[in-house]
Inverse folding.
């Protein structure tokens, strides 16, 4: 029999055996499992287990059903997870990709939709902020080109018309001198525009450097005031200075650029001060800051103009003031910032007041 053969093999080979056979009577499949019992290197006996497979069929079928059910639930969970991730991660990433491509193509008005959270929201906010900054930069560039074109077009038109009149000899020799002087003034205006543009570009470049030294602000103010003495006299402007000739206030800065700052501010005050008006120049030092205040009487600056007074080419009260090209205050502010200083402007009751402060030299 199979059982006797398995036991003999177990004793002879000292190994486990397993065999099956089908009963010819009831056609049931039996199995035999034989395990040798070894002691001191010799087989002393064997453990035999036998039975049928019929009792395991329902359990095996149940296991198969459970495996398929688990697989189905797992696939369903994966599908649901994919849908959720697509909505929360993939779709926002696709939106960001689309938006950045539009920005790269030059459309700075697009924004990433606000449909993400956490880190993706921070990324979308950064992209939107970048787009906003690029849009502002593009608007500034467009306004800059428009302003430059306008500032150049006006003197060129005047020069062309005056030259045409002179060439065609439609005016007397005295008028020709007058027109020639007008042409020279317009040429000087264009020259000022070009110089200011080059100066502003140089100041805003990364390689621009200030030549620092110990500078007396009070002395620079006295020099700047003296430069425009003829204008004050011509317009009968009363110039008032609150500090005496012995006052000194030192900072570390570039003397030439500081002179440029005060020349611009005092010239600006003189330009907007009417005849018989007055200009007040004040300076003080508290150990930490050196302050300079330049005030002038006149029509003042409207509340609508105040936020834009330091922008390039911006001119308050354009109807009355045709001097300059609107770059002086922009250059002035940039130079003050490079010196670590601040500038503010106020206007009340027709008095415009520019307040400048620099870190004091200790």
């Amino acid at each position: 029999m199979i059982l006797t053969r398995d036991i003999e093999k177990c004793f002879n080979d000292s190994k486990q055996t397993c065999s099956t056979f089908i009963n010819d009577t009831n056609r049931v499949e039996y199995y035999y499992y034989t395990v040798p019992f070894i002691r001191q290197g010799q087989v002393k006996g064997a453990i035999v287990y036998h039975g049928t497979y019929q009792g395991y069929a329902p359990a095996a079928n149940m296991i198969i059903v459970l495996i398929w059910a688990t697989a189905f639930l797992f696939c369903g969970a994966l599908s649901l997870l994919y849908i959720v991730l697509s909505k929360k991660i993939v779709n926002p990433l696709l939106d960001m990709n689309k938006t950045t491509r539009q920005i790269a193509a030059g459309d700075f008005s697009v924004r990433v939709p606000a449909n993400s959270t956490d880190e993706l929201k921070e990324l979308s906010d950064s992209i939107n902020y970048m787009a906003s900054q690029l849009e502002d930069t593009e608007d500034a560039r467009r306004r800059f080109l428009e302003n430059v074109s306008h500032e150049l077009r006006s003197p060129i038109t005047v020069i062309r018309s005056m030259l045409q009149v002179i060439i065609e000899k439609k005016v007397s020799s005295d008028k020709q001198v007058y027109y020639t002087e007008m042409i020279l003034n317009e040429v000087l205006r264009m020259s000022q525009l070009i110089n200011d543009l080059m100066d502003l570009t140089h100041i805003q470049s990364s390689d621009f450097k200030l030549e620092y030294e110990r500078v007396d602000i009070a002395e620079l103010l006295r020099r700047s005031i003296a430069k425009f003495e003829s204008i004050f006299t011509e317009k009968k402007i009363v110039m008032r200075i609150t500090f005496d000739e012995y006052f000194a206030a030192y900072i570390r800065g570039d003397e030439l650029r500081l002179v440029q700052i005060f020349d611009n501010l005092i010239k600006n005050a003189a330009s907007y001060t009417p005849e018989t008006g007055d200009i007040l120049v004040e300076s003080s030092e508290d150990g930490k800051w050196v302050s300079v205040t330049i005030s002038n009487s006149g029509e003042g600056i409207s509340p609508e103009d105040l936020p834009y007074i330091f922008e390039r080419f911006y001119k308050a009260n354009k109807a009355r003031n045709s001097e300059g090209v609107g770059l002086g205050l922009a250059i002035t502010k940039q130079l003050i910032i490079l010196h670590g200083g601040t500038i503010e402007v106020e206007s009340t009751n027709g008095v415009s007041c520019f307040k400048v402060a620099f870190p004091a030299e200790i």
User: Anything to note?
Assistant: The two ends are 114 Å apart (CA to CA).
